[in-house]
Amino acid sequence: MTEESWGQVRDELLKAVGRSNYTTWIEPLQFTELTEGVARFNAPTGFFATWVERNFADLIRQHLARNGEAVDRLEFTVHQPAPRPTSATVARRAPARSGDEGETLSAPLDARFTFDTFVVGKPNELAHAAARRVAEGGPVSFNPLFLYGGVGLGKTHLMHAIANEMQSRKSNLRVLYLSAEQFMYRFVQALRERQIMDFKEMFRSVDVLMVDDVQFIAGKDSTQEEFFHTFNALVDQNKQIVISADRAPGEIKDLEDRIKSRLQCGLVVDLHPTDYELRLGILQQKAEFYRQQYSGLVLADGVVEFLAHRITTNVRVLEGALTRLFAFASLVGREITLDLAQDCLADILRVSDRKVTIEEIQRKVAEHYNVRLSDMIGPKRVRTIARPRQIAMYLAKQLTPRSLPEIGRRFGGRDHTTIMHGVRRIEELMAQDSQMAEDLQLLRRLLES
Ligand code: ADP
Ligand code: MG
Questions:
Q1: How far apart (Å, rounded) are the C-alpha atoms in residues 214 and 203?
Q2: Residue 182, SS3?
Q3: From atom 1 of ligand 1, which residue's Cα is the shortest distance away?
Q4: Which residues touch 360 (CB under 8 Å, ≥6 apart)?
Q5: Is this prediction's pTM over 0.85?
Q6: Which of 9, 290, 345, 406 sits at 20 to 30 Å (Cα–Cα) from 395?
Q7: For residue 273, cis peptide bond before it (omega within 30 degrees of 0)
Q8: Collapsed DSSP state (helix, strand, coil) of residue 209
Q9: Strands laid side by side in the 208-212 sheet
Q10: CA gap 3, 19 in Å, rounded
Q11: 3-state secondary structure of 207
Q12: pLDDT at position 415, please?
């Protein structure tokens, strides 16, 4: 497991245990290693370790498992946290240890995170285009490139893709990629070991600096300060900087205003939540990869579509689902069918249970009957349009908790009696016309899956 994936598990734990438990018990844990089913952590005190062990160990293991890390046991080592970096502390420290940390400064790049493996769709096309542009390494046209978006939408993937691409184009280019957390860690370490000059020089001598999850330094004053200076020095030298965060610069709390405005100076692009097409594309790509890995495994029609419909949280969860599905199917030697998927992924599917919206219903129905979406809410009364509109009204009543007046409003401000009439009409037709009943069955299934 990498620090990055522990970071992901921590994000999930935050949601599971709540902010205050998280800050008290999870955040101070320092992941050190995972070998042979044992995950090791540093904990600040013995009491702390015992408490976490008793109260959170199972939960931590569950979330590790969900992220594909099989762990039998957690082990905690007690260590003293680093003293707060003040100049007084530095002055009292022993003389600097010599040593060159240059080569180890950059966090390792994941070779799988390339542009080739990044599936482009509407929600991420701008971010992708901007990342491509930076990776070409031409004259710096926007600085920094600031990528933001929710968890698991591909920020880290794109950053690694930029770094991988730049390095393969020009192997002597000094590309430094690290998370903001690592930046802080290195900074504090440099202070402690009195190597702050080396630290500064190191960071100022790179050609490209990439800092992932910069929201992490919010509220960490001395780290912010140092980050700000590094940032400015590099911009002055016209060196490319790429930053990611989970939200827009202006929305990061406890980040100094001057840093916010600096971050906004370049190009700010966001990765939007995935849509169905993108999820389908990503799943198809990964499924292809797994089909080669587990040759002989059969993936039944409709399974990837089903997953793309049902798992809407983020790409990481989507990938995790597919990984688990293939692993499970190969273990039991069965074809991957919808039933198998439903069994094997029950927990994930439950969390992702979708709530159907009126807009979605209108869109699906319009698509199905080949009429314009605008006609769903428009005034036209011809049968070929009015009938699908009534069907959408019926489905809105059946599949959403909205009241008739509310539904009326969403259908171009129609009166609730019009909606009621439409619903009744469809009920009558369904009773008389088996084709109509079947059509509705199908639409319903599409919307609910
Ligand atoms: P973030 O840093 O935004 O939290 P990541 O970059 O770590 O998200 O992405 C989570 C996982 O989803 C990674 O395994 C990544 O490869 C995958 N992923 C995200 N977006 C895409 C995409 N557009 N195409 C292919 N894989 C993607
Ligand atoms: Mg990330």
A1: 16
A2: helix
A3: 152
A4: 447
A5: no
A6: 345
A7: no
A8: strand
A9: 175-179, 208-212, 240-245, 145-148, 267-270
A10: 21
A11: coil
A12: 95
pLDDT given for residue 95 in this prediction? 34
The minimum-distance atom of ligand 1 relative to the CA of 124 is 23
Query: 264 CA distance to ligand 2 centroid (A)?
Result: 20
Instruction: Yes or no: say if 101 and 72 are a contact pair by the CB < 8 Å rule.
Output: no
Q: How far is the CA of 152 from the centre of ligand 2 (A)?
A: 7
Run of H or E residues at 240? strand 240-245
Exposed/middle/buried for residue 422 (C-beta within 10 Å: 0-12, 13-18, 19+): buried
Q: How far is residue 383 from each of residues 350, 366, 390, measured CA to CA in Å?
A: 39, 14, 10
148 forms beta bridges with 245, 270
Report the residue count for the chain. 449
Which residue from 133, 161, 131, 135 is spatially nearest to 147, judged by alpha carbons? 131
Asked if 428 and 438 count as a contact pair (C-beta separation under 8 A), the reply is no
Ligand nearest to the backbone CA of 151: 1
pLDDT tens track for 312-339: 878 999 999 999 999 889 888 899 999 9
The rounded Å distance from CA 156 to ligand 2 centre is 4
> What residues pair up with 269 in beta bridges, in sequence order?
147
Tokens representing residue 314 in the block:
């983020």
The finding on whether 426 has its CB within 6 A of some atom of ligand 1 is no
Domains, the chain, ordered by start: 3-78 (3.30.300.180), 125-270 (3.40.50.300), 276-352 (1.10.8.60), 358-448 (1.10.1750.10)
Q: What pLDDT does 354 receive?
A: 61
Cβ-count burial 124-153 (b if 16+ within 10 Å, e if not): beebbebbbebbebeebebbbbbbbbbbbb
Given the structure tokens 């990629």, which residue do they identify? 177
Ligand 1 pocket member 286 (CB < 6 A) = no
Identify the residue whose C-alpha is closest to ligand 1 atom 14: 316
> Which one of the ligands is nearest to 152 CA?
1
User: What is the enclosing helix (H) or strand (E) of 6?
Assistant: helix 3-17
